């Protein structure tokens, strides 16, 4: 291994992975309301933001050389089928429009999932909180609706379930 360190260019070629801001995607957690920035205790340095604060936030993100954001919407009202995520007037849709209006060229990624369901329902469970059993087909149908609804507002959709 010592021979690989004898010349600066050789060291550059064989060095470990090098990360820069251009290699990252920054998560943004968006909530309803106005002029709110609520710190997320489990994620120091991150906050839940309202849409009106996004323009300033994404301009700073772009100035740091970070090329993309992924949006996680926190709906005002939750239901067992994640209706807000399928709504063109939902919190994620509002956030994407605000980011596009900010004039930055950030890549906008949206999340298709059921993370913000009521605690009585989860992805892959019943489509209403009262129904027992696993309803995978219904879950897949709703995820597909989210994925089809979101591309018009963003460049990429991500699923992490």
CATH-scheme architecture: Alpha-Beta Barrel
Helix content: 25-40%
- Total domains: 1
> Which value, in Å, is the CA radius of gyration?
20 Å
Give a short synopsis of this structure:
The chain is α/β, with parallel strands linked by helices.
Task: Note the topology.
Layout: H1 8-14, E1 25-31, E2 37-39, E3 47-50, H2 54-63, E4 68-74, H3 83-86, H4 91-101, E5 107-111, H5 136-149, E6 156-158
Parallel strand pairs: 1-3, 1-4, 4-5, 5-6
Antiparallel strand pairs: 2-3
Describe the model:
- This protein starts with 7 loop residues before the first helix and ends with a strand.
- It is globular and about 60 Å long.
- It has 5 helices and 6 strands, in the order H-E-E-E-H-E-H-H-E-H-E.
- The protein is 29% helix and 18% strand.
- About 4% of the residues have low confidence.
- The protein has one domain: TIM Barrel.
- Helix 5 links the parallel strand 5 and strand 6.
- The protein has 161 residues and is α/β, with parallel strands linked by helices.
- The protein has a 6-stranded mixed sheet, covered by helices on one side.
Please tag this protein with its features.
single chain; 161 residues; alpha/beta; TIM Barrel; six-stranded mixed beta sheet; 5 helices; 29% helix; 18% strand; globular
